[in-house]
Specification:
Elements lengths: L1 H23 L31 E6 L5 H11 L1 E7 L4 E6 L5 H9 L4 E6 L11
Antiparallel strand pairs: 1-3, 1-4, 2-3
C-alpha cells in the first residue's frame, strides 16, 4: 500500500511540475499582457483604425476624473459624445475635427486622465447555420 501511495504522490508532483514548467516557457504568458503583442516582434500590435467605424472612438477615463474635466477634454479634441457607459467610465464619441484618428488616439492616450483610447471596432456576430 505504501508503494502505491508513494507512486501516486510522485505522479501528482510530476504533473504539477510539468504544468508550472509549461507556464514559465517563453511566450506562454504573452497573451496576459495589457496590450496585444505580436509573437514575431514582441512589440505592441499597431492600432488599425481603418478597421474601426470611421471617425468614432471609445475612450475610457480613470474613475476619479470629474464629468467637467471629461467634457473639457472631449471639447479640446473635437469629440461629440454618442453614448456614455457611466459604470465603466467609457465614452463612445464621434470626432468632429479633421485630425487623423491616430493622432487623436495618441494625444488622448498620453493624458493622465485617460486609461485608454481606441477606434470603435464593430462587433461581429456569429452566423447561424440554416
Amino acid at each position: 500500500m505504501t508503494t502505491l501511495c508513494a507512486a501516486t504522490l510522485i505522479r501528482s508532483r510530476l504533473s504539477v511540475s510539468i504544468l508550472i514548467g509549461l507556464l514559465l516557457l517563453p511566450g506562454c504568458g504573452a497573451g496576459l499582457t495589457e496590450e496585444p503583442v505580436s509573437a514575431e516582434t514582441r512589440q505592441p500590435t499597431p492600432l488599425r483604425p481603418a478597421d474601426g467605424v470611421p471617425g468614432e472612438l471609445l475612450i475610457k477615463f480613470k474613475p476619479d476624473v470629474s464629468h467637467e474635466r471629461i467634457t473639457a477634454l472631449l471639447g479640446e479634441v473635437g469629440a461629440e459624445v454618442i453614448t456614455v457607459f457611466e459604470s465603466l467610465h467609457l465614452y463612445h464619441v464621434r470626432m468632429r475635427s479633421r485630425e487623423p484618428i491616430e493622432t487623436v488616439i495618441r494625444t488622448l492616450s498620453g493624458l493622465p486622465e485617460v486609461e485608454y483610447a481606441e477606434p470603435n471596432y464593430p462587433r461581429k456576430g456569429f452566423e447561424r447555420a440554416p
